Amino acid sequence: MSRKDLTLLTDFYELTMMQGYYKEGQNETVVFDVFFRNNPSDSGYSICAGLAQVIEYIKNLNFTYEDVDYLRSLGIFSEDFLQYLGGFHFTGDIYAIPEGTVIFPKEPILKVVAPIMEAQLVETTILNILNHQCLIATKASRVVFAAGGDSIMEFGLRRAQGPDAGLYGARAAIIGGCAGTSNVLAGRMFDVPVLGTHAHSWIMSFKDEYTAFKTYAELYPDNCTLLVDTYDTLKSGVPNAIRVFRELRDSGVPLKKYGIRLDSGDLAYLSKKARKMLDAAGFPDAGITASNDLDEYLLHDLKQQNAAITSWGVGTNLITSKDCPSFGGVYKLAAIQNEAGEFVPKIKLSENTEKITNPGNKTIYRIYEKDTGKIKADLICFADEKFDAEKDLMIFDPVSTWKKTKLVGGTYTMKEILVPVFKNGECVYQSPSVMEIAEFCKAEKDTLWEETKRLFYPHRVYVDLSDRLYEVKKSLLDQMSME
Amino acid sequence: MSRKDLTLLTDFYELTMMQGYYKEGQNETVVFDVFFRNNPSDSGYSICAGLAQVIEYIKNLNFTYEDVDYLRSLGIFSEDFLQYLGGFHFTGDIYAIPEGTVIFPKEPILKVVAPIMEAQLVETTILNILNHQCLIATKASRVVFAAGGDSIMEFGLRRAQGPDAGLYGARAAIIGGCAGTSNVLAGRMFDVPVLGTHAHSWIMSFKDEYTAFKTYAELYPDNCTLLVDTYDTLKSGVPNAIRVFRELRDSGVPLKKYGIRLDSGDLAYLSKKARKMLDAAGFPDAGITASNDLDEYLLHDLKQQNAAITSWGVGTNLITSKDCPSFGGVYKLAAIQNEAGEFVPKIKLSENTEKITNPGNKTIYRIYEKDTGKIKADLICFADEKFDAEKDLMIFDPVSTWKKTKLVGGTYTMKEILVPVFKNGECVYQSPSVMEIAEFCKAEKDTLWEETKRLFYPHRVYVDLSDRLYEVKKSLLDQMSME
Description:
TIM Barrel, nicotinate phosphoribosyltransferase activity (chains A, B), phosphoprotein (chains A, B), glycosyltransferase (chains A, B)
């Protein structure tokens, strides 16, 4: 399967800035951080996803003759710069948080350390990929949480924002906890389960509903979920489905995975009625699948009303993250290397304190409570800082700095969560398979307190700064306000 | 540029149904309609977009060996069916409304007339493409409307839901009326204007703001928009920009397209203050570009408050259609051809009257008021119905059937808006260029009444049924309720 060439998938200003740096002979190594300011949908956490596609993008980064010809045709780029682009490849370092990890606002989830011309070019596509997949993985995780133990199927391809949104959205949804997708290409590309039975058109193309059900059941006796709402769910659909199940059973066909699907009407009411009818007919193990504009909020309510639904198909609201369709990740300059090879921290001011960036070449340590394995806080610090978890540790809230937390030595453990992905332009990271990432993500969610997983008004996880980082940030701010 | 192979980009149930039809030897020609039930964002109209990509998809539809191997590996498809897929291509007819046309709920915007196995396969991707591009073109059209005559630039790539959402979203945004995009790949693929200058990182990578501005202005004197909000917009950014403009002017460099860009803070307040400072310094023709979480609602308010902004960059809220991120187009069976070659109308019931489909092999006539050229109504009718605009015409509201409108012969004109795109699997339609479509779309919007273009509570355009279609629908409904 051929990949689209994404090298030109960038904002035009990245190229005008690149030419500017080129002309100025200015190509010092810099540090850019990708981070986000808020969890989508007021979630207590987000899920990291998209790194495998970022890696693929960086590996394939090169300007073809046609790309260069197109840029030449714009009449704004000089021949020497175009020639430089013709030989361009990425030579820098990238660090990232592995896919499936639970992540929190303000921490760098990916860090580029590269000559500024290279670091600038890759901004837009890295953000595009991570913003999309983190968004959908997070949404999927919330939907899966709302469903308790029931399985969730991703059904949104037809409403996704273009082919890639369907494809990589399905990938992210599986990472976030969905059991499968209806998207066949996603199944093939990412080796994930594909699922689905039939549509209303199947029913309508036969002379009656019974014949449509019967034909389908005889074709697919091993996995037979009949869509019962084409004409009248309780008067026609469920009775016809029961008739077909009975005929199969009477003729000796073993019923394995079978049941009905509801796709309209009130799912709580209809599922409870249908459950009674199926049970009374001797089919207590028939599943009831439901779909129809579901999201985590409706799912949460339907579960509370004891809807008799065993599995759920979620489409539009998951694949577009309807209530919050963008993730808001940004890419900010954090440091510039000087001639001595030191990273000089840079800061961007803002009238809004929350929007002031964290300066310097940084990393993140995740701090766990030793007893429970639950996350106590994330600590952002300089990349060269070392800690001893046997010693007490004081951490600061970066905005409300009076909020200090003292961690007592020996009661906590620490893990660096930003790992090397590219070194001098070479990929040094092997992405796990999507199903492995999904498994890892499930374990990651076990490190969250229940209070953080709650759908509404969740408890926020602390993302704090190290002593040293806090002091540097403070002095940079003081310095700027003096100017 | 290589296209991804989209043949497997389909819902799994399309393939299980296809195999079902294959096994049953059931492959009669059917009619499927694509239509939508509501305009996004409570708009009074939508914009049709995406047909060129649907055409490309249908033309390239074929199962590779690898596709077939993958399907075989799922253990649900038989060898004879897999062999059939190996030789599959589309042999049917497709009719569609040309891109850039204004469209309204409930009318078929695309119609597939094909053997049911083929018509079923293409459902998901056709919906995916049209749903996405119609959504973004409609959103763009609203944003452009809110801006009055000011130009709108599409800046959303980094927040789009994956690469395609950025790429085809930019295409749709241009169709909807945007003047250009920041997306370089979209510029190359669709031959549309690309725009952009520099980011905060450019400013931060120089020793001070003045030096950053000066360097940029000397590099790009012909198109020099300086981003003024990195440190302090009115105290530092605008004065430094003025200093640079003055130095350029004093050194004899002609200032052509130049100005400032605001990317934070209150855009009404800051733009008016900046305008005064620029005017006082002798730069009345300096443009003021603004960006920062804009949408049609904020733009509408900023215009009302006389914000002194001359062009606008719109990102996240446009590229995701944030307040309404899905279009809701559906694909419904409308007729099945019988052995005599006649299309037998089919209908899908629903507990909700609004959701009952319109049966039959249909087309749409757009009715214009002769005097003004404005749209009077759209008329859905059978494909073989003919009308004489010199005669009186009675049309029915399909839900509130007591709402009848009598059009007096000679006061109106009619145009069939569904045109042939594929005939017997051959493409018979040549897509215009994106800029031609954008031009056409502008003219299309002139056929709308001002009341329909309004952002809030717009006047709805009537989409009515012909006498004959209304009678057939009624008798089908009567017939079903008798069963």
